[in-house]
């Protein structure tokens, strides 16, 4: 939706349209985070009343199977554990400059007409794989029962990067238990840092047999994500949040 609003020449007017989110997807992480910040349960009725004030909304929200689906996929990935090569390039937030090695970036492409930024002037760092998992968030909840980024704040101007480079299968199972309350980030196998921008340089699976099979699959361009703080407005129950929304530029 945001990319659609930002893709035209009139993006400065289009992005002023307030956005409302109703939980009807698989994870519902964004709306869960919005309602949770106001102390309200993640339900369609609560979300709708945040958008349309004073209307009696008598819809009974039934829980979708999204949480079970995410759990099943997580277990499936643990037992069939994969590691991927490649690297991540990022601009660390203040206090996280010790992560990675400083590098220069020459990228100037943009995927929408929004605010421009001098990519080359930013303080880029790089971490090489292989990786078990990379998760990038700007809200605390990744799903209704998954607090993926417990330190994420709507208005801090940062993305929260949760990274696992190596971890035994048993430890990964224990990490899944910690997703309910965010305690998984305390594991020595998890690196948790805040960044201002992020580039993924994808690579093939570590498994030699899979390299040739995934060469074409993993040869897509490097996605760039940059925080544009205060760019869009979201409806919330008792707040009108003009906060950060990370958007892939290309």
Automatic annotation (TrEMBL):
One GO term (biological process): sphingosine biosynthetic process
GO molecular function terms attached to this record: ATP binding; lipid kinase activity
GO terms under cellular component: cytoplasm; membrane
Membrane-spanning intervals of the chain: none
Keyword Aminoacyl-tRNA synthetase: no
Keywords of the record: ATP-binding, Kinase, Nucleotide-binding, Transferase
Superkingdom, taxonomy of origin: Eukaryota
Ranges where the DAGKc domain occurs: 1-54
Pfam families (alphabetical): YegS_C
PANTHER family to which the protein is assigned, alphabetical: ACYLGLYCEROL KINASE, MITOCHONDRIAL, SPHINGOSINE KINASE
UniProt name for this protein: DAGKc domain-containing protein
Organism the protein comes from: Erythranthe guttata
